[in-house]
Amino acid sequence: MKIYNTLTKRKEEFVPIEPGKVRMYVCGPTVYNLIHIGNARPMIVFDTVRRYMEHRGYEVNYVSNFTDVDDKIIKKAIEEGVDAETISQRYIAECKKDMEALNVRPATTHPLATQEICGMEEMIQTLIEKGHAYVAADGTVYFRTRSFSQYGKLSHKNLDDLEGGKRSLLVSGEDQKEDPLDFVLWKPKKEGEPAWESPWCDGRPGWHIECSVMSKKYLGDEIDIHAGGEDLIFPHHENEIAQSEAANGKTFARYWMHNAFLNIDNKKMSKSAGNFFTVRDILEQYDPMVLRFFMLSAHYRSPLNFSADLMEAAKNGLERIRTAASNLGFLQQNAKEGNRSEAEAALLETAREYAKKFDEAMDDDFNTADALAAVFELVKFINTNADENSSGEFLKALEEELLELADICGLSVQTGQELLDSDVEALIAERQAARKAKNFARADEIRNELQQKGILLEDTREGVKWKRA
Ligand code: AMP
Ligand code: ZN
């Protein structure tokens, strides 16, 4: 299995630290709003990486954080007149609903920054003791960037170039730095902001330290894969490397994976630019599996431009797979009893070639675009070779192969999932009852279950309306 490593700018054979096991950390979202579909790209991509690694027999320990203390969260809390925790808890819950709808499996651990302050203080203390960090007069603790000689190795920047652009590195309020390249590990409290006691001042951590600390706590000093969107390469991941390697004296992560942006009109989709669609917006129009299919239709290191045409293409692609799966289910119900024929055994050999092709594509730095092309070849093969004369055994084998490949992509295409109108109505009634009883967890569960099966709900004044995606 080859992975493109941002650190070496090469595709490298994947060799885990511990045979059979993968330790993987993916930087998660800052929770102050509903996530947009750009944020969903790394979630879907790295969930697929995880699923494929499990398919190849690895046990994957997958850690992804929620940044739940940050300027934007505090700003939103002030606007709404609530505390920061109310905001972050609300949007963590919403984010988890989106993940579930998109079939993104929960991480092994989802740590929260606010629950890991002690560990952050310990690592900062170690950095101070080793001379890699210092406390300024106002209590801010800075990382001494020049003390880490390999700084820049991930983003392939050199310190002198960075120094040349130092004006842009001068951040207001950070005027007590020894050097403009230094970055914040701990900052003093401001009025009305959440704060924790520390040996340096009451305050809160800078952003970068949380990932170094959570990765160490849940995965150990050395991990296999660290991942996130390409905007995180500099400064976030560069700073994480500096903190972790300076504190622990070991190589932090062996493979650094970064997804390219999801764009809109060829510009990065982002909350700050205001050019975004939330996952929720899209799920009002499309089955969540269409969005997942769309994300996987491009290689994760290629920019992907969001457009209605590409979503329609994704919808059609998904439909082709679903139709093949449902035909296999239907044919099996009526198939003759009996084992496969010799001719069918030979055909199954050919069908397995598509699974092999799928694996080859995924082994080549998770080329999901080519892997989906192999799935379509299998679909075509099924459409040509499975019919009412086929044996049940043959049809079952084809169905298993198709469903397995779809499942590695996290695409639920299973047959027998179609709901009758009466089933939908009954579930909607159950959801209304759950809401009335303030059992919002159950209500959300039903909404997600329906969404997964392509039923979209809309809460209107006249009651709940629904349609098939
Ligand atoms: P944030 O909440 O901005 O820290 O982002 C959470 C994750 O989403 C990070 O891994 C980002 O790199 C990623 N991300 C944000 N915007 C985009 C985008 N337009 N395309 C792809 N990834 C993105
Ligand atoms: Zn991070």
From TrEMBL:
Protein biosynthesis found in the keyword field: yes
SUPFAM superfamilies documented for this protein: Anticodon-binding domain of a subclass of class I aminoacyl-tRNA synthetases, Nucleotidylyl transferase
GO molecular function: ATP binding; cysteine-tRNA ligase activity; zinc ion binding
Superkingdom, taxonomy of origin: Bacteria
Subcellular location: Cytoplasm
EC number(s) recorded for this UniProt protein: 6.1.1.16
Motif annotated as 'HIGH' region, chain positions: 29-39
GO annotation terms (biological process): cysteinyl-tRNA aminoacylation
CDD domains the record matches: CysRS_core
Residue ranges of the motif 'KMSKS' region: 268-272
Keywords: Aminoacyl-tRNA synthetase, ATP-binding, Cytoplasm, Ligase, Metal-binding, Nucleotide-binding, Protein biosynthesis, Zinc
Catalytic activity: tRNA(Cys) + L-cysteine + ATP = L-cysteinyl-tRNA(Cys) + AMP + diphosphate
Cofactor note: Binds 1 zinc ion per subunit.
Binding residues annotated for Zn(2+), in chain numbering: C27, C211, H236, E240
GO cellular component, as recorded: cytosol
Keyword Nucleotide-binding: yes
The protein's required cofactors: Zn(2+)
Family classification: Belongs to the class-I aminoacyl-tRNA synthetase family.
Complex and partners: Monomer.
Name of the molecule in the record: Cysteine--tRNA ligase
The species this protein was found in: Candidatus Eisenbergiella merdigallinarum
Gene that encodes it: cysS
